[in-house]
Structure formats: C-alpha cells, structure tokens
Write a structure and sequence with these properties.
The protein is 11% helix and 33% strand. It has helices spanning 3-10, 76-81, and strands at residues 14-17, 23-33, 50-54, 60-63, 70-74, 91-94, 108-117. With 129 residues, it is mainly β.
C-alpha cells in the first residue's frame, strides 16, 4: 500500500484542502442516523472516521475534538500575511468504512460545526516586506 492509497481512503467524504480564510474553529463532530436524524452512540461510529490533519512532515493525524473543546485551524490568509512562517492546516474528512460494523445497517451522517473567520472578499492580502 503506498501513500496515495492511504490518502484516498482518508479523504473519502471531504478531500484534502486548506481553508482559504484566516482561522477556522471547530467543535467536535456529531454523528447521526441518516434516516432518523437521531444522534448515534460512540459504539455505532467508525473509530477511524472524522477529521484528519497533516503535520509539517506530511504525516496524517486523526483529530478527535472533546465535546467541551474547540480546535482552531490556520487558513491560507494567515499563511500569506506571515510570508509562510505560519502554514495553513491541510485537512480532510474520512467517512465510515464500508462494513466496519457488520452488526449495523445504520447509514451514518456527520454534522460538523465550523466557524470560519474570514475577511471581506476585497480585503488586500500582502506579503510581508
């Protein structure tokens, strides 16, 4: 298995990308039954599903955000304004693996709670001198 195969599996819900703004704050994911809309207990959620980020060495890391916490990701605007000193956070979302729980026929949906901190579209971004 090569790195491209692994990356393809990780980003099967939302592909690898950087957020374009300044910062993104995220609360923990809520997984629900796609048919009923009811929240699912942890036992019905694939433990490998969810948010993945890439560190500066290119390693993929599964991120679990506790219920009483927020995570903050750096966006591309910060990367531009700092001349690359601070780097945007590459991330993706992995959905549940097909058949990971053979005892369940539940279709799982994910609700995320991002707050994007952006500027107006005409805000000039300049590299530092």
């Amino acid at each position: 298995e090569n790195d491209n195969d692994t990356a393809a599996k990780e980003d099967n819900w939302i592909g690898w990308h950087n957020d374009s703004g300044f910062l993104t704050s995220l609360a923990g994911d809520l997984y629900i039954d796609d048919t009923t809309g009811q929240p699912l207990p942890p036992s019905q959620i694939d433990p490998e599903a969810g948010l993945y980020v890439q560190n500066r060495t290119g390693e993929s890391i599964h991120v679990t955000i506790p219920k009483d916490c927020l995570a903050v990701q750096i966006g591309e605007c910060v990367q531009i304004l700092t001349g690359g000193v601070v780097v945007a956070t590459p991330h993706c979302v992995r959905g549940p693996r097909a058949g990971w729980n053979p005892d369940s026929s539940t279709k799982v949906a994910r609700i995320s709670h991002p707050c994007f901190i952006d500027s107006k579209p005409t805000f000039p971004l300049c590299l530092p001198e």
